[in-house]
Specification:
Oligomer: single chain
Radius of gyration: 18 Å
Pfam families: adh_short (PF00106)
Helix content: 25-40%
Protein name: SDR family NAD(P)-dependent oxidoreductase
Organism: Paenibacillus phytohabitans
Distance between the termini: 40 Å
CATH topology: Rossmann fold
Largest sheet: 7 strands, parallel
Structural class: alpha/beta
Strand content: 5-15%
CATH class: Alpha Beta
Order of helices and strands: EHEHEHEHEHEHHEH
Low-confidence stretches: 42-46
């Protein structure tokens, strides 16, 4: 696949989960993919969950990319990532803001006053603010080639969104909707530059943490009843590729998009050939 040949992408939080799936699919589509995380490691130290492991996967199918170890709660490290990309590539076409620290505590559906206030630090400092500061340093580089519609530049914020339904955890709901609103504001400010900004919401993803909690793996998940409606992390990756390759993507800028709906629009499927429908919060 060469839809994104010649494009340079950055995926933050790319060593596991949605970030890993997106980094792999962008590379499969021909983009040169930079991806960040805190665990450089090696194939022997955590395998594919490390940055080195993901790079090994990219190289295994002939893709190109580089990893940069980065703690995105440290602004200097985030700025250094963008400086490195500018020095090595001179441009940035696709930015996927995926870094997220919100799973350090269980995300329980309890009243606000019964939840630990530490959720704020995890979800906002290591989530919302980390994505905001990545935008802060990356947007000047993305704008540097000149303004105008049709430039093919794209910023994605991975989030969760289901028609603004309340998700049940106050901090999670507030942080995920903050990312939706961040994308909307940026979409207005970057419209004249032809840079689309899209909040992208997956469904019930089989991340490493989910598979572990269900005591299964990606080869045996179909044996677990609770995972029958789940989707792989490649599914959101294919959504990101479809958006980045769409010459009319500016028509979607600022509007939350759900991976299942985009599958109907663009025609992609999950790794098992299914077109997984949109995940909806039960009424």
């Amino acid at each position: 696949m060469t839809e994104l040949q010649g494009k340079v992408a950055l995926v933050t939080g790319g060593s596991r989960g949605a970030g890993r799936g997106i980094a792999l699919e962008l590379a499969r589509a021909g983009a040169y993919v930079y991806f960040t995380g805190r665990n450089a490691g090696s194939m022997q130290e955590g395998g594919e969950r490390t940055l080195a492991g993901v790079l090994g996967e990219i190289h295994s199918f002939g893709g190109e990319g580089s990893y940069i170890r980065c703690d995105h709660t440290n602004d200097a490290e985030t700025e250094a990532v963008i400086r490195q990309i500018a020095a090595e590539q001179g441009k940035l076409d696709i930015l996927v803001n995926n870094v997220w620290g919100g799973n350090n505590l269980p995300i329980e559906n309890k009243p606000f006053w019964e939840l630990p206030a530490a959720h704020w630090d995890h979800m906002f400092n290591a989530g919302v603010r980390a994505q905001l500061m990545t935008n802060y340093y990356a947007i000047p580089l993305m704008r540097s080639e000149g303004a105008g519609a049709g430039t093919g530049k794209l910023i994605i914020h991975t989030t969760f969104w289901d028609q603004y339904k309340y998700v049940g955890n106050f901090y999670y709901d507030l942080s995920k909707n903050a990312l939706v609103r961040m994308a909307y504001g940026l979409s207005l400010e970057l419209a004249a530059d032809g840079i689309a900004v899209i909040p992208l919401s997956p469904g019930w993803m089989r991340t490493e943490l989910v598979l572990e909690s269900m005591k299964t793996d990606e080869e045996h998940w179909q044996e677990v009843e609770e995972l029958q409606a789940s989707e792989s992390t490649a599914y959101i990756g294919r959504a990101a590729v479809a958006l980045a390759a769409d010459p009319e993507v500016m028509q979607l800028t600022g509007r939350p998009q759900q991976v299942g709906s985009l599958a109907e629009k663009y025609g992609y499927t999950d790794t098992d050939g299914r077109r997984v429908p949109v995940f909806n919060i039960p009424e």
